[in-house]
Amino acid sequence: MNTKYFKIFEIAYLIVAVISIVEVVQVWGTNRNRAYLFLFFAIVSLGMFFFRRYYRKKFSDRQNKE
Questions:
Q1: In the predicted model, is pLDDT for residue 20 greater than 80?
Q2: What transmembrane ranges does the database entry give (predicted)?
Q3: Which has the least CB within 10 A, 31, 42, 48, 66?
Q4: How far are the Cα atoms of 11, 27, 41, 43 from residue 31, in angstroms, in the given order?
């Protein structure tokens, strides 16, 4: 499978994380529960970004060795 698609999904996770962090900053003073929810989304999105990037690199290294 083409690793280009994997890179696109990584970027999508980063975009979700950035949007969530912006939302946290905007809502922190008015609605703390909503801010915590978006903070959770940001942390999960960043975690998924690093997880997917690690496995994409591992997969491409294995493909290059063959």
A1: yes
A2: 12-29, 35-55
A3: 66
A4: 28, 6, 16, 19
Q: Could you tell me if 62 and 47 are in contact, meaning their C-beta atoms sit under 8 angstroms apart?
A: no
**Residue 1 pLDDT level (bands cut at 50, 70, 90):** low
What total of structural domains would you count in the chain?
A: 1
pLDDT in tens, 50-66: 999 999 888 888 877 76
* C-alpha 35, offset from chain centre: 18
State which amino acid sits at residue 52: R
Give residue 55's domain range: 3-65
pTM passes above 0.70? yes
Contact 35, 28 (CB under 8 A): yes
CB 10, CB 52: distance < 8 Å: yes
